[in-house]
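Quick note —
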Amino acid sequence: MSEHPSRARRARPLPDSLGASVITPSRRSLGAAAFMVTAATITGCSAPGDGGSTAGPAEGGTLTYALDTPLNSLDPNLAGAAQEGRVLRQVVDSLVSLDADGAVQPWLAEEWEVSDDGEQYVFTLRDDVMFSDDTPLNAEAVCFNFDRIADPANGSLGAKPMLGPYAGCEATEEFTATISLTEPFVPFLNYASSTFLGIASPAAVETMGAAEFAQAPVGSGPFVVESYTPNDRVTMVRNEDYQWGPATAAHQGPAYLDKLVFQIIPDATVRIGSLRAGEVDMIGVVPETEFTAVDADTTLDLLSEPQPGTTAQLFLNQSQPGLDDVNVRKAIRAAVDWETAVQSLYFGAYDYAWGLLTPVTPGYSDSAEGAYEYDPELAAELLEEAGWIEGADGIREKNGERLVLRYIESDPSVQKKQDYGSFIAANLADVGIEVDLAFQANAPLQADRQNSNYALATLSYSNADPNVLANTLLSSNIPTPEQATFNLSHIEDSELDALLAEGRTETDADARAAIYEEVQDIVIENAYTIGMYVPVYTIASKAGITGLSFSIGYPMLYDVQLPSS
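Predicted structure written out below.
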């Protein structure tokens, strides 16, 4: 377990909302914050009603949206992947929403109160909301969802960390839900706007069972799942009874679109080709090599939406031979030309990530910039100091064991993961470290994570609060066969644990910002993880589509209108 000398905290000015119920981050590009509900800034595309499209928007029609990866689960209580959040945002509503200034606004909850000790939240719900199975959305439904998420037997991935120190939920009145915590949890109200804390129909969950519900979720949202064919598409139809859009929406009443189809097209070339051929209307994850061409094409619109949460990082599993030595971890960091990798692979679409949080995330600090550099000679020296000596075949050895690192990764075509992994492997080979690259489907990848069958793994985690770092750094979040959590480096650091615990209860904005900057400094100092790039979600669409907005980085299609033909 690591210990560190005490260090002075450097408080950085942050909006007061970082320590209260509202978060207002600083943003370097694209105007309003990505994790809030914001009007999309699409090249050549305008917001509804401002006259930017010569044809003008139309009501009705079908929008086909091409996704880049398959879906594991459509159960909002249990799912955890960003791709699933993008789909589910159209199906489930949340208790609250965040506006363009980061202020918490009504949605299912008309009002809320927080106790003085920060351990109780009382939500007063609208009394007119119905799930699409014609059952009422009331306080009992809210408590059913939160209790289901909190139950470890259910294996919730995305939602459970957002409940924090959850103690229970009580329907104190038909439309009043009282949520109790064991201690203050500053991010909770913002997390209540998340897709993964969206409210699903208890009747549907109980009638269908978990497996069926994960393929046909029932919510109260503007769209209803009509059918789902795994690895192919999800088809949704408009909820004609929808009258309870968030206060942040551009209109109220049913969605403009008649139908919404999420089509799964993993191949980037096929995906962009389908858009150009008119077979789909919108695609997610635009191939980096196509950015310039799409931007110049007057028949298409392009959007780059920075994602809140953690940067994409390489995690170094300390339970594996060699990686428990800080010199070996620092050698890996020094051996790879990270900035050149990002520049050459992504053509300016992504920036290199020095730190832990993306620039649009509250608590972001630039203190890590320039903290290390590409230096293969230093890497070799550190490995020698750690006792890893170059063998006859060029691969380093220690006590008869070769320094071979198993690097697990998901779909190799997404964000050029195969190319990035190969770049890392080539640079590490130059200093005597062999990398075994293993690209896997989601199920075996998750199994390897939980069984610690890897040395290197990558992860980025979308989230609206710096508390997201607890998910990836807290010692209690080391994955196990029984626990699908995200401390993939297997960090056990008592000082980090204490700081992360302090960060989720601290209500003073500047003090809270200083805590997360200190967390970042410790991670950099010990090379617990290594930054790879700053995630950006890119969308290309037919020109003239209007009304696209975002909620915690996920597209909201409720206000979207197709151009008139």
